[in-house]
Amino acid sequence: MTMSEVKVIVRRNRPGTKGAEFCKWPEEPFEEMDSTLAVQQWIQQTIRRDPSNITAILTPPETQDEEVWKYEHLRQFCMELNGLAVKLQSECFPETCNQMTATEQWIFLCAAHKSPKECPAIDYTRHTLDGAACLLNSNKYFPSRVSIRESSLGKLGSVCRRVYRIFSHAYFHHKTLFDDFEASSHLCRRFTSFVMKYNLMSRDNLIVPNMEDGATDAPPAVTETASTPTTTTTTTKVTPVTGNTTESEA
Amino acid sequence: MDGDSINSPDRNGISKIRDLIRRQRQESDGGCDESSELDFVYDDADNYTNEISELYSYTEVPEFRKNLAAYDTVMERWGIPLQWQRLSPEVRKSVILRLLNHFELSSKALRAEAARAILYVAQGCWSEVQSEQEQQQWTRYNVTLLLKNGIFQAVVDLLCLEIESGPMAVRKPAVSLADSAELRVIFSILYTIVETIRTKSDDDTEEFEEQRKSFKAEIAQPVRDELLAVKLLNMVIKFCGGSAPHFPIKKVLLLLWKVVLFSLGGTCELRELKTQYRELAGLAPMKEDTLEVSRNMRAASPPASATDLLDAQNERRNIRPLRRSLMKQTSLDESAALDLEMGDQMEEEMKEIEERRAMEESGELPQPPSPRPLTPVPAKNKGLPWTPKVRQKDLDAFLENSRMKFVGFPIQGDRDTLAGLPAPIHEGVKVLKQHIYVSLSEWQMTREEELWRCPLSMQESDTESTAHGVEALYAAMLPNLPQYIIALLKILLAAAPTSKSKSESINIMADVLPEEMPMTVVQSMKLGIDVARHKEIIVKSISAIILLLLKHTKINHVYQFEFISQHLVFANCIPLVLKFFNQNITAYITAKNTIALADFPSCVLGEPPELTPESLELGEPQVYCWRNLFACINLLRILNKLTKWKHSRIMMLVVFKSAPILKRSLRVKQSLLQLYILKLLKMQTKYLGRQWRKANMKTMSAIYQKVRHRLTDDWAYGNDLDARPWDFQAEECALRAAVDRFNSRRYGEPSKILPDFEPVDHCITSVLGRPVHLTNTFREYYEVWLEQEVFKNPVNWDEVLSCPGYF
Q1: For residue B773, what are the CA distances in angstroms to B764, B770, B779, B788, B790?
Q2: B153 and B216 in contact (C-beta within 8 Å)?
Q3: What DSSP letter does each residue of B137-148 carry, written as one string?
Q4: Where does the pLDDT of residue B172 fall: very low under 50, low under 70, confident under 90, or very high at 90 and above?
Q5: Each residue's pLDDT tens digit, B318-347
Q6: In this prediction, does ipTM exceed 0.85?
Q7: Beta bridge partners of B223
Q8: Per residue in B740-781, pLDDT tens?
Q9: Which residues of B touch A201 (CB under 8 A)?
Q10: Which of A221, B115, B282, B326 has a 20 to 30 Å separation from B154 between CA atoms?
Q11: Interchain proximity B101–A161, CB inside 8 Å
């Protein structure tokens, strides 16, 4: 232990590392990270420092290639979303949530199959995260983590779109669980800022309320569910059972 | 053709004669002026406007409004102003992303609505534009936008979904347009995107160029482990199998063609590839490009059969009554029956000739400077259009023959020794050597043989096997290739104008026929044109697909080409194409099955047109129909590709009596078309007999003049019919064996090819871990065996160690 502190800092969680000791190594300036995984390392380091400081997390170091930055962040999101998926497994069952819905109007198809089909919410979550992991690690589409192929860029948007539905499902159907998770990770908030910053999704599809920091300057989102007049301005009272129509509010 | 203008009744005699003289001159010049020759430039596809308008059948016209309505509904629901052109780029993007989100909804109605709205955007938001040009600009702009936001991928996903969940749960007696509504929208979006990006235009920005490149890469990538082209081919199979009669087959084929064309490349890329591959193989560069040379060539005129008659008549002038000489001539001709069909036209011509001769005799006619036929006045590019070629094989045969004749014994494998041969032979060998041309195919075959003989010491380099998109496509097509070929040919047969609608095994009309049959005369006229146009477009796309596949595989690896072509032959492609040409091909090429008013986008710009019998005829007059001429040339090229150097298949041409059919097609005055016909005639001339050659001297000289010469090839005079007994079976079987060997070497399981050279497994754990199959008897008597063979046989292990010479 003393040896490594003096000489080299090994930034690695060796087998047998205690939970408390996890990732407990001193920070490193971005310029000194010399591995090919520097961007990921940097992002994780900033998140560890303060997960709620989203601006800091999403601000790339200077001279950072934007496409790689987006890609690395999306990777990170998918990794952290697995945490939400694990939590969901204890509450979201195929019997109770037999369709992937957020607000009740829309049922989404699971795109992970040869031809898209309806899957229960938890299966959708697992399939989509698996699919995203496969895609983002695929040698064919993303052979390098230093530069991203032009033709693969379009894939990022579709991953975002599909992955976001996990947030919205958790929010509208497993509210307490979502709030717990969000309180510690700020993941949904960060994700929302991320897709807005890089324009990867339409603002109107971001239906989890009160997530946009910059929402104040935006016009109130048009409700896509025109048939539901029950939209309330107080979004805090939503219960998982009936919470069906809350749209993002200014 | 100018034959029509001659027939018009209001012409007076003099102008008729002028026409005639002009034609005579053209004939004797070996060419003709531009007005009579078809001003057709062969290309990979027609111009953008036509290619887009051919996507939609005329019965689909009312649906354009539905797209607009869907767009309006969506925009109104979201509270966004309807005017697309006035929206800011951000809002446009946001609309597209929101629509994209709808693609993954489970509700079919919402999905369909979103798809229609996207289609409307892809169509350039036509309700806001004033002109066709503006519509095209907006299409280009919008397509770029759609592509950037990943619409293409999403629509392909949607396609996967729709393929699986068609409306075929309930089988209906008659399938109509309504059954394929969703699929047609999807295909229209995909096709519009592909075609718009593919088409090069002068004002392409660099960014557009970039996007084209990346889209080209994307489209060649498999989606869910399946190439888009293969997915479409599978749809074709399904359609032919009858399990999905609602597939909009025309759109499937059009998209397939454009996807293959775009991802593999057209004429230009093919030429580059060939040059590159020849360079890699260390071969001399190509001598000339067929399309280039033929562009400068002039069409032979007038129609061959009439020409022959003129010749005959010139010889026998004033000897006997004209009519009888005609009869005599045709009776000599194998094509008598066919020519009689054209009797009327010939009679016209005969009359004119008689008239003219009468005038000549009375001195009224300005005499041409010398008696006909004139010696051809050399054109700009003097001499033969092609450099002659010789194959190595031909040189070897020549040497061997000469040696046998003068020396008395052959020297195997020697190409240089000229000892004992007379000087003219030396000269001959020199000339032959100058013109030797090793084709890429020959090189690949030799290489393949080497690879086969030395499987361990020689390895295929990466550039050889995985260089190009066609390799991936071929590998993906390989498992079902015969089915693909059969399905394509089946549809081609059903779409051929000569096939009877009753005998159609598959209904290719599902995506034209409306739900309700037309009531008025104009409506049914329109439907008639629509159906004919539909068939023509199908023929065009299939011919282009097959030709592209053949051309690309031929350059990539000759055995891939041979595999496809062999399946084409087995699926009766040769008689099918001949049957296709056994129609009035001039009429087919000049057919006008187009309603300019109903073409997209004219049909949606401005007021909806009132269709009257007159308005059906409106539009630019055209001398020929681009798509039909294109399809004909493609089919002839396919036929050429299949039969070149294949003795057994050339015999098929003879057996199916192709000569008269092909000769009749020579009437179309287009040099490229004629060139391919002449090539087909040239290869079978030997087998047609002296009589045929005598009666078709004009055609023979056209061949001499226009087709490449092969030195030492006595195509015109050879009578070595008996010398080469043909065995269809043996030749095809040998080829088949070579192709199979190639396929299994390159695409098969490595262990099956060389079982002896598999590495031996040394690892104890893996060897012991392998499941061993024991017989029941052994299991039963296992203990006995143990007792007898193991325990009762004491082994002195020390002896093993002390075994002399072991260590």
Answers
A1: 18, 10, 10, 21, 20
A2: no
A3: HHHHHHHHHHHH
A4: low
A5: 444 444 333 433 333 444 444 444 444 555
A6: no
A7: B226
A8: 999 988 888 766 666 666 667 777 777 777 888 888 888 888
A9: 97
A10: A221
A11: yes
Quote the percentage of chain B above a pLDDT of 70. 78
Tell me the pTM. 0.80
**Residue B239 structure tokens:** 């359609």
| A243 Cβ neighbours under 8 A, 6+ residues apart | A172, A173, A175
Which region among A199-213, B43-57, B541-555 has the lowest average model confidence (pLDDT)? A199-213
Residue that terminates a domain, selected from B400, B434, B468: B434
**Cα–Cα distance for residue pair A132/A155, rounded to 1 Å:** 10
Question: Distance (Å) from the C-alpha of residue B229 to the closest C-alpha of chain A?
Answer: 16
- CB-count burial class (<10 Å; 0-12, 13-18, 19+) for B34: exposed
Is B496:B576 a contact under the CB 8 Å cutoff? yes
Confidence of residue B297 (pLDDT cuts 50, 70, 90): confident
Question: Following DSSP, what letter does each residue of B480-521 receive, concatenated?
Answer: GHHHHHHHHHHHHHHHSTTS-STT-SS---TTT--SS---SH
Residue B83 CB: number of other CB atoms within 10 A? 11
What residue ranges do the domains of chain A occupy?
61-217
Asked whether the beta carbons of B158 and B222 are under 8 A apart, the reply is no
Taking an 8 Å cut-off on Cβ atoms, the answer to whether B153 and A107 are in contact is: no
Q: Does residue B155 lie within any of the structural domains? A: yes
| Domain of residue B228, residue span | 45-264
Give the three-class secondary structure for B630.
helix
Q: Measured between alpha carbons, how far is B272 from B551 in angstroms, rounded to an integer?
A: 13
B104/A111 touch (CB, cutoff 8 Å), yes or no: yes
Name the amino acid, one letter, at B274: K
Question: What pLDDT does B500 receive?
Answer: 64
**Topology (CATH) of A61-217:** Butyryl-CoA Dehydrogenase, subunit A; domain 3 (1.20.140)
pLDDT at B399 over 80: yes
**pLDDT, tens only, B21-46:** 454 444 444 333 334 688 888 999 99
Q: Looking at the 3D structure of chain B, how many domains does it have?
A: 3
Q: Write out the DSSP string of B656-717.
A: TTHHHHHHHHTTS--HHHHHHHHHHHHHHHHHHHHHHHHHTHHHHHHHHHHSPPBTT--TTT
CA–CA separation, B257 vs B549, rounded Å?
10
Mark yes or no for CB contact A99/B106 under 8 Å: yes
Determine the residue among A97, A101, A113, A115 to mutate to test chain B binding: the one whose Cβ has the most chain B Cβ atoms within 10 Å.
Answer: A115
Interval B111-120: pLDDT, tens: 999 999 999 9
Determine, yes or no, domain membership for B168.
yes
Q: Final residue of a domain: which of B264, B292, B311?
A: B264
Q: How many CB atoms lie within 10 A of CB A158?
A: 22
Using CA atoms, how far apart are residues A250 and B530, in angstroms rounded to an integer?
54
